Amino acid sequence: MRKPRDYDAELKALDDKARQLKARKREQLGELVIATGADTLPVEQLAGALLLTVEATDERAKEAQRMRGEAFFRAKSGAHPIARRHDSGNTADSGSPRPASAAEGAA
Question: Which residues lie within the region annotated Disordered (predicted)?
């Protein structure tokens, strides 16, 4: 006979994992702020800069920001230039944990 699944335990494990991921994301964002030197800015100015970036609609400006960020992480890690993707402008990988690993290397 099959062992019954413990859905409550599975849900609790998933909830714990989600909490860990959220905590790690917060930690990585803090490391990124420190690594870029943005921790010296007034909180209002930092929030304003982030809001301007999130609300940006100009694709050229977004690409320039992405390239500057990529160059920042390459310089921090001492890594070789990453080959650019030549797809339809897909930057789906921009939310990857790369910033934190670069920030950790700088710490």
Answer: 72-107
